[in-house]
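Input.
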Amino acid sequence: MIQDFLAESVRAALMADGVEPPATISIERPARPEHGDWSSNVALALAASTRRSPRGLATAIAARITANLPPHVAEVTVAGPGFVNFRLDHSWLHLVLREVVEGGVDGYARPDIGAGERVNVEFVSANPTGPLHAGGGRWAAYGDSLCRILDRCGYQVHREYYINDRGRQIELFLESLAAIRAGQPVPDDGYHGQYVADWAAEMPDGADPRQWGEARVLDDLRGVLARINVSFDTWFSERSMVASGAIEAALADLTARGNTYERDGAVWLRASAFGLAKDEV
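Output.
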């Protein structure tokens, strides 16, 4: 990275000036673009320990680097109270382009940070009560991009869609679908979208509205996601988790460990004991 390259130049300049460099030399973007491409505050950080003015030390560093400019560095200047600023030549961009071409699609930007560690990423997870909306599409793009980056960095990525198929909203959707199919009014708090009427018209005679409706909405979600090149390894049903008894088992384990308490007729998790701002129901 160019930051590492510049930090080594600063380190060498400090040592040549008789100053012990710090373990880490900060290289950041300047607050004002006209000051250059990169900047270091090392002179300000070392001024007290070296008993030198920050600007004086920065000037000495800049002079030593300027005397033998490293590759890709066009200019080294001092700004403000003692910032060492670097302006780069376009050649460093050309160097990056060569690295990209040499690495190719399979080799460039593939750091093995994950080292095979397994990661489960759950994203989108909209209530299965209708077509994917803009918000869900946003999270599909974000989550899929995150998974691709993790995969590129050496993680074993598992993509999960958590199907929220339990609760009042899914019941209202299925009741609305069944009502339209039977020629009855949709419940006041039900789903009145045109897609519900369209899907009701597709429902075969004698079909179970619950089974057919759940399958229809999931099929629509899968189709839309496939068209934007987003896929999942697992589609996990919330209802199946409830039926398995996993929630009761988890609550019993948390209670046995003293991590829950009852208040106002509800069971609370001592979330604040684990760093959260407040306890949660």
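The mean pLDDT is 94.
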